[in-house]
C-alpha cells in the first residue's frame, strides 16, 4: 500500500510540475512578445533650439544595433516558446525533452546577451561617455528612454522565465518526472 501511495504522490507531483512548466512557457511567451513590441514601436521626435534655428531630432530603435538585436532576440524567443508550449502540451518523448532542455538554455543566454547589450547602450544614452565625448541624450528623449527601460525589464523577466524553464526541463529530463512516463495534463 505504501508503494501505491508513493506512486500516486509522484504522479500528482509530476502533473503539477508539467502544469507549472506550461504556465511558465505561456508567461515567457507573453513577456518576450511584450518586450519586442515595446521596443519595436518605440520612437520619439523632439525639437531643440540652436540659436534661432529649430532642429528636429528623431530617436528610433533601429538607430542602435543593440536595440535591433533585442527586438529580434525577443521575437525568436517568443516564437520558440510558443512552439515549445504546443510541444509540451502534446509531446512526451524523451528526445523532445532533451531538445527543450538545450533550447531553453540557449534562449535564456540569447536574451541575456541582447538585454546586456541594450542595457549598455541605454546606460550610455542616459549618462553619456565623457572619455569619448558622447553626451547623454535621455534628457531630450525621455519618453524613448523610458520605453527602452520598460522593454529591458520585460526582457530580463523573460530571460529569468527561460532560466526557470531550463531548470524545469532539466528536472523532467534527468529527474523523477521523465517525459516518457509522466501523466498527461
UniProtKB/TrEMBL annotation:
Keywords for the protein's UniProt record, in alphabetical order: Cell membrane, Membrane, Transmembrane, Transmembrane helix
Cell compartments where the protein resides: Cell membrane
Protein's membrane topology: Multi-pass membrane protein
Domain Casparian strip membrane protein, first and last residues per copy: 18-160
Highest taxon in the source lineage: Eukaryota
Transmembrane segments: 22-40, 66-88, 95-116, 147-168
Gene Ontology CC annotations of this record: plasma membrane
Main location: membrane
Family that this chain belongs to: Belongs to the Casparian strip membrane proteins (CASP) family.
Subunit structure: Homodimer and heterodimers.
Name of protein: CASP-like protein
Amino acid at each position: 500500500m505504501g508503494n501505491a501511495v508513493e506512486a500516486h504522490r509522484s504522479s500528482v507531483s509530476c502533473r503539477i510540475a508539467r502544469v507549472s512548466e506550461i504556465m511558465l512557457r505561456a508567461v515567457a511567451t507573453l513577456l518576450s512578445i511584450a518586450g519586442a513590441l515595446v521596443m519595436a514601436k518605440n520612437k520619439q521626435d523632439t525639437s531643440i533650439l540652436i540659436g534661432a534655428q529649430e532642429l528636429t531630432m528623431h530617436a528610433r530603435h533601429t538607430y542602435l544595433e543593440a536595440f535591433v538585436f533585442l527586438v529580434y532576440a525577443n521575437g525568436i524567443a517568443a516564437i520558440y516558446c510558443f512552439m515549445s508550449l504546443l510541444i509540451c502540451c502534446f509531446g512526451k518523448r524523451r528526445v523532445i525533452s532533451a531538445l527543450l532542455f538545450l533550447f531553453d538554455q540557449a534562449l535564456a543566454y540569447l536574451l541575456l546577451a541582447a538585454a546586456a547589450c541594450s542595457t549598455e547602450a541605454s546606460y550610455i544614452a542616459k549618462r553619456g561617455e565623457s572619455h569619448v565625448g558622447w553626451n547623454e541624450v535621455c534628457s531630450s528623449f525621455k519618453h524613448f528612454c523610458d520605453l527602452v527601460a520598460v522593454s529591458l525589464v520585460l526582457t530580463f523577466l523573460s530571460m529569468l522565465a527561460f532560466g526557470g524553464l531550463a531548470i524545469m526541463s532539466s528536472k523532467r529530463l534527468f529527474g523523477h518526472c521523465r517525459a516518457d512516463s509522466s501523466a498527461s495534463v
